[in-house]
Task: inverse folding
């Protein structure tokens, strides 16, 4: 786990996709997209099944490793309106156990139009001076944590290009990578992401690597 500071708060990169906030004993994850595989299967495109089991096991591992007592999901929790109803019994049991064991908050995203079951559902949340929402709002001047964009950084290493999920940070905004097992990604330097993080003097991609924080510049104000 890799600690770093953001907007006066001490945070921790907990593995390649999760964020831990020690002062709030909170694990933050974005874009679970539970039941994405079953959604595509209904439309004739077969993806590897049991993505929800894999995603929820990732959450369970992150909770154990961090000791989190709260879980804050930053939107696009299920892939579609009927996702919660399609959870097979094993995955449904996993989710129910996790929600019972923690203070679980579902922040709604653009994919979240249906029921999410137990836990607390909110359009956004302001906590200890940070705004938690699904999609970064350009022009927001309060410190903000969000998801939505599924940022990935492409780097060249030893003659080949490697793509890894990453965080994208400006002075007042931090975008989390997608956490779900079947979530793709957008280039972290995509103009849409840079625009969403305005106002900013600089935008960087963050990665954990061998216990330290690695920072890649993506954009600088002219």
Result:
């Amino acid at each position: 786990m890799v600690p770093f500071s953001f907007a006066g708060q001490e945070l921790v990169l907990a593995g390649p996709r999760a964020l831990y906030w020690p002062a709030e004993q909170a694990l933050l994850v974005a874009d679970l997209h539970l039941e994405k595989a079953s959604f595509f299967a209904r439309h004739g495109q077969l993806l590897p099944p049991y993505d929800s089991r894999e995603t929820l096991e990732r959450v369970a591992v992150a909770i154990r490793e961090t000791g989190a007592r709260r879980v804050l999901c930053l939107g696009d929790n299920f892939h579609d309106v009927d996702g919660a109803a399609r959870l097979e019994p094993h995955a449904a049991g996993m989710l129910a156990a996790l929600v019972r064991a923690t203070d679980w908050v579902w922040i709604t995203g653009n994919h979240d139009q249906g029921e999410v079951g137990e836990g607390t559902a909110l359009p956004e949340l302001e906590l200890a001076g940070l705004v938690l929402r699904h999609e970064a709002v350009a022009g927001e001047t309060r410190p903000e944590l969000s998801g939505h964009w599924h940022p990935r950084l492409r780097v060249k290493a030893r003659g080949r290009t490697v793509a890894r999920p990453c965080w994208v940070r400006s002075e007042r905004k931090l975008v989390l990578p997608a956490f779900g097992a079947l979530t793709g990604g957008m280039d972290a330097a995509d103009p849409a992401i840079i625009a969403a993080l305005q106002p900013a003097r600089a935008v960087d991609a963050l990665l954990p690597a061998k216990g330290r924080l690695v920072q890649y510049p993506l954009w600088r104000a002219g």
Summary: Residues 2-220 form a domain with the Purple Acid Phosphatase; chain A, domain 2 fold (CATH 3.60.21). Residues 51-66 form the longest helix (16 residues). The chain has one domain: 2-220.
